[in-house]
Amino acid sequence: MISNTYNIQAIEIQDTGKYIISMEGQNHFYDSFLVNDEKLTKGHHPDWVIVNSIPKKLERLVSKHRKLVYYKLKNSELSKVTDYPAMLPLESINKSQTYEDSCVFKEPYHEIGYLYEPHYQEIAAHYEPHNFNLKIILSIKDFPDPFSFEYKARTTDLYRKSDVYTINNSSLVQQELDKMLFAPPLLIHRPVKLKAKDLLNIIRQHVKDNINKDVAVISSDYDFFFDVTKIVPLHKIKKYQVDINQGTKKKQKFIDKEVTNKMEKIIGFCATRKDYERYNGSSLLNDLIGDNAEDLDRKLKELLDSLMEFINTPIVECLHCNAQGYIIKSSASLINKCNEDMGDTPPLCHPYL
Ligand SMILES: [Zn+2]
């Protein structure tokens, strides 16, 4: 059975025999088509797929289903004792009122319709051929392999409900002018932007997945604000006593307690200027821009790597400035040298946020 006629736009990739094609309105169903007996290969763009030769044959998968073929007497014995037909063709139903199980029969079966029930035929999954119109819109010299930009991101709200989602090529923003000048699959070569909000949500997920909990903790995790606090071991452990019988009529009983760490905020991010102005001590994330998706991916990887290195590097109090700042633990042995050589602040000392 041949039904729909599909409109196919194609871009020829010279010297390869391949074509990048788009089928109007069908991008969600590409998995169900065959072109020249082959499945379609996903490209860079959700609307466009790659085929290995010029489309000559188009088929679409029809999944397994049951098909209504006629109506039959619920009680087949009736046809022996009456002149009611054993079955009624589909034409005996008023089409506009077909609900299969509760349909309205035309005359002369209107009165006896309730005695009949639908009869179905099982149809196995198969491919059906379709007509199509092919329009070759462009011929290009070379076409890069599909580059898939894909990161997990996490939203969260005031009630700490969070939701993980995927940011991929189609979440990236392209320049409006480029979209007018270039056919969609060719936009892969053009500059792309990752929105600051998406960047924040990628950072949120990446930090959650990679933070070393011995060194740092996530201290704020809101839609509008995300920050990380370092655990800084105290140079001088603070000892104190607690009366465990306080508030009771029992005799005082003291036990020793100690504080070994302090918590210091070291990094915080907002994604909008409004939030940035509202929350002190945060950094405003900018949109991240790449020459193309691959370049953007490289920049984002660098950013995430250096961020995790910063978060997961152990730090200690800087004793030179009486713990006003911190130094990286691995360079702590250098501080003596700084004490000798430098003025008030050794160069290795960083202020807390
Ligand atoms: Zn210092």
Q: Can you give a write-up of this model?
A:
With 353 residues, the chain is α+β, with helices and mostly antiparallel strands. It has four domains: 5-63 and 126-140, Sandwich (Immunoglobulin-like), CATH 2.60.40; 66-123, no CATH class; 150-312, no CATH class; 315-351, no CATH class. The protein is built from six helices and 23 strands. It has helices at 78-81, 176-181, 196-210, 273-278, 293-312, 335-341; strands spanning 5-13, 18-23, 33-35, 38-39, 41-42, 49-51, 58-62, 65-73, 87-89, 116-123, 126-140, 150-156, 162-168, 173-174, 192-194, 216-222, 225-243, 254-270, 283-284, 288-290, 315-317, 325-328, 350-351. Strands 4-3-7-11-1-2-6-5 form an eight-stranded mixed β-sheet, with no helix packed on it. A four-stranded mixed β-sheet has the order 16-17-18-19. The longest helix is centred in the C-terminal third of the chain and has 20 residues, at 293-312. The radius of gyration is 35 Å and the shape is elongated. The model has no long low-confidence stretch (mean pLDDT 86). Bound molecules: zinc ion. Zinc ion is lined by residues 318, 320-321, 324-325, 345, 349.
Features of this protein?
alpha+beta, 353 residues, four-stranded mixed sheet, single chain, 23 strands, 4 domains, eight-stranded mixed sheet, elongated, binds zinc ion
